[in-house]
Design goal:
Layout (H helix, E strand, L loop, with lengths): L2 E4 L4 E4 L7 E6 L10 H19 L3 E6 L16 H9 L3 H18 L15 H13 L3 E4 L2 E4 L28 H6 L6 E6 L15 E3 L3 H11 L3 E7 L3 H16 L4 E7 L2 E3 L2 E2 L10 H8 L1 H9 L7 E3 L1 H26 L7 H19 L4 H17 L4 H17 L12 H15 L3 H13 L2 E6 L2 E6 L1
Parallel strand pairs: 3-4, 3-9, 9-10, 11-13
Antiparallel strand pairs: 1-2, 5-6, 6-7, 7-8, 11-12, 14-15
Helix pairs in contact: 2-3, 4-6, 4-7, 6-7, 8-9, 10-12, 10-13, 11-12, 11-13, 12-13, 14-15
The structure holds adenosine monophosphate and zinc ion.
The site of zinc ion has 3 residues, from loops.
């Protein structure tokens, strides 16, 4: 029985799916105007772990994640489109910006062993569907047009605020950060939000609409693309907690007002990655890009660091926290190497009583992660098994069963402790050169070669059994 903490209602609830053992899940993806930072990666990995775990528990998971390539406005007074601003800065077209940073996004996330969602729709390719939804909202009188811009009238939607608590009464006049100054005069209520914007004459991304040339508001893409691919209602909607308001509140308003039924059953929000106690963010300038972080710490350690804390608690980047993660992760990797070594040197046979003891750790692992995806509890079970394996001296088959179990559990969380990779010839040659340098006691040359190998994404470990090459 899986339980999840639902932001809607702010309680832990039993996960009941709409259709048997199928999970329909949508998570908000990146705005592709720049490299993602490691905080973004934390959130994307949280939903990767959730999808992987639900599959492990026998669910068929359909995961949709959008690519925002139009409509996300900056938080400054000017509220410019983030993609357009980047295009001006880099002197290329908005499409080129979106393409470049979508590719960079996938590159970084794939290094972190992230499973690409099943469908990754782009906002710019769904503008027609968005226009249709805006038309429905106008027809049903949930929206109004002012000179080519269409606003959602939040006073018409009685459930406004049900996710974030920001009901109409509670919202103060004056507008949120994402509201353009000139809009305020046009609106019936300052927190009415734009479904569709009238495009200024020289605006680079605009579409023909019943209200003239324009472009979509930020929130409409998610109400449209989620239900297009998953239906309405669907099971899980995810994102970082900064999206609760206004983004997700507005997604609910649009979808439920237009279609007259519940939008989403479970809203899951991840907590922030912080640095020096402050939320990591582009606007504060206190960020590492995912690539920077990965090249400094290695991809697997980065993944371990980001997922080993519960996704709904804050994670603070400090040297001590990274060192602790490294210690834990090395312990797991060393266990694998040591157990592999012991297997070769142990007598054949299996002690099924001991294997049964090992399997108790799987029961604990499942019990913990079933409880609102409690990864720290899951890792505790993994470390308990590692401890048992390290002290066990006995039969090879027992060790193998224990090792398989360890790799099963870490694998569910997307960690790669044993690389099943074919090492490219180029790397093999460099490793051979390094071996030669070591045999000649040319240590600085050997170190240089290790660095060169590392730059190509591989690590070398000098163990008692010889040099082990693995992807990092
Ligand atoms: P964006 O591209 O800004 O829409 O952000 C992509 C995702 O990263 C969203 O789900 C955000 O909520 C999430 N996010 C942004 N900053 C952080 C942070 N410091 N820690 C964790 N998640 C974040
Ligand atoms: Zn969204």
């Amino acid at each position: 029985m899986i339980k999840v903490f639902n932001t809607l209602g702010k309680k832990k609830q039993i996960l009941k799916t709409i259709k048997d053992k199928t999970i329909t899940m949508y998570s908000c993806g990146p705005t592709v105007y720049d490299f993602i930072h490691i905080g973004n990666a934390r959130t994307f990995l949280a939903f990767d772990v959730i999808a992987r775990y639900l599959k492990y528990r026998g669910y068929k998971v359909k995961h949709v994640q959008n690519i925002t390539d139009v409509g996300h406005l900056t938080e400054s007074e000017l509220a410019e489109d983030k993609i357009l601003k980047a295009a001006e800065k880099e002197k290329v077209t908005p499409l080129q910006i979106a393409k470049k940073y979508t590719e960079k996004y996938y590159e970084a996330m794939e290094k972190l062993n992230w499973n690409k969602p099943d469908i990754s729709p782009k906002a710019s390719e769904h503008v027609k569907d968005m226009i249709k939804l805006v038309e429905v909202l106008l027809k049903k009188d949930f929206a109004y047009e002012v000179d080519g811009t269409v606003y959602f009238d939040i006073s018409k939607f009685k459930n406004y605020g049900k996710l974030s608590g920001n009901t109409l009464e509670k919202l103060e006049a004056g507008g949120s950060a994402r509201i353009k100054k000139e809009e305020i005069a046009e609106k019936k209520h300052p927190h009415d939000f734009a479904l569709w914007f009238k495009a200024p004459k020289d605006h680079a991304m605009k579409w023909k609409s019943p209200w003239g040339m324009g472009y979509p508001g930020w929130h409409i893409e998610c109400s449209v693309m989620s239900s297009k691919y998953l239906g309405q209602p669907f099971d899980i909607h995810g994102g970082g907690k900064d999206l609760i308001f206004p983004h997700h509140e507005n997604e609910i308003a649009q979808a439920e007002a237009a279609r007259g039924k519940k939008f989403v059953n479970y809203w899951l929000h991840s907590e922030y990655l912080k640095i020096n106690g402050q939320k990591m963010s582009k606007s504060l300038g206190n960020f590492f890009t995912a690539e920077e972080f990965i090249s400094k710490h290695g991809a697997q350690l980065t993944r371990y660091f980001l997922i080993s804390k519960h996704y709904q608690t804050e994670l603070n980047i400090t040297d001590a926290a990274i060192a602790a993660a490294k210690e834990g992760f090395d312990k797991l990797k060393n266990t694998v190497v040591a157990v592999q070594h012991k297997i070769v040197n142990s007598p054949k046979g299996v002690d099924s009583r001991v294997v049964k003891e090992f399997e108790k750790h799987r029961v604990k692992f499942i019990k913990e992660i079933d409880n609102n995806f409690n990864t720290p509890g899951g890792f505790a079970a993994i470390f308990d098994l590692a401890k048992d394996l390290n002290v066990y001296e006995g039969k090879a088959g027992t060790l193998q069963a224990g090792l398989d179990l360890l790799l099963e559990m870490t694998g569910v969380l997307g960690l790669v402790l044993v690389e099943d990779v074919k090492v490219p010839k180029k790397i093999k040659d460099l490793v051979a050169k390094r071996e030669w340098a070591r045999s000649e006691k040319k240590w600085s040359e050997a170190d240089k070669l290790r660095e060169e190998i590392k730059k190509l994404g591989y690590g070398v470990d000098d163990t008692k059994e010889g040099t082990i090459v693995k992807k990092i």
